[in-house]
From TrEMBL:
Family the entry assigns: Belongs to the Rv0495c family.
Protein source organism: Porphyromonas catoniae ATCC 51270
Family annotation (Pfam families): DUF3109 (PF11307)
InterPro entries named in the record: Rv0495c
Descriptive protein name: PF11307 family protein
Length: 194
């Protein structure tokens, strides 16, 4: 574990090679799991704010869930997460004619209709954040549905932290990310010396 500011970073984000292979997985992380996407404080407000812009993209089942319980709920661990359909699909998941998943919020973001791309936990995946009183743990989450991303990451020789440069910068700022890169260089130098 490496400390950068008040973040404790797992060695895995430097060592694991990872690059999403959307053509292979079709966005499975939006529809697999036992609860919705974790939300940071204020993100449910963003989801509600832009809901009118994405409603037309959502399934009738998703709209019914949102009408009944809202855009989010608190899971068994007490964490606020996005609402889900069929016990697993995020309510904001859309499908194209080939069965590929996309986030409705991400779609309107890239259309220039919103300044909110999607919850940071979604954008940071496969990194998961755990917030404690004095620090935030930054860990790599291993999941079998991402085997294709490990294969592609290996082909590209792309470590997790480089693949997620944009989301990590969004989450913690440019200065923090620059420090992360400095640590990565030092670790690489140490490996070359051994």
């Amino acid at each position: 574990m490496i400390q950068i500011g008040d973040k404790i970073v797992s060695q895995d984000i430097f060592d694991v090679l990872f690059a999403c292979d959307y053509a292979a997985c079709k966005g499975a992380c939006c529809v697999e799991g036992d609860s919705g996407a974790p939300l940071d404080p204020g993100e449910a407000d963003q989801l509600r704010k832009y809901l009118p812009l994405v409603e037309h993209l959502l399934s009738p089942q998703a709209k019914a869930i949102i009408a009944e319980q809202g855009v989010s709920y608190f899971d068994e661990d007490g964490d606020e997460v996005t609402s889900i359909v069929h016990g697993k699909d995020c309510v904001f998941t859309t499908y194209d004619e080939h069965g590929n998943c996309r986030c409705a919020y991400e779609m309107i973001y890239y259309e220039g209709k919103s300044d909110f791309i999607k919850p940071i936990s979604c954008q940071l995946y496969p990194i998961r954040l755990t917030r404690y009183k004095d620090f935030t743990a930054v860990n790599y989450h291993k999941w079998s549905i991402c085997k294709c991303a490990l294969k592609r990451g290996k082909q590209l020789q792309l470590p997790v932290y480089k693949f997620l440069e944009g989301p990590l910068t969004r989450a913690f700022g440019e200065e923090w990310y620059a420090q992360l890169e400095d640590v990565a260089r030092l670790l690489q130098e140490e490996q070359l010396e051994t």
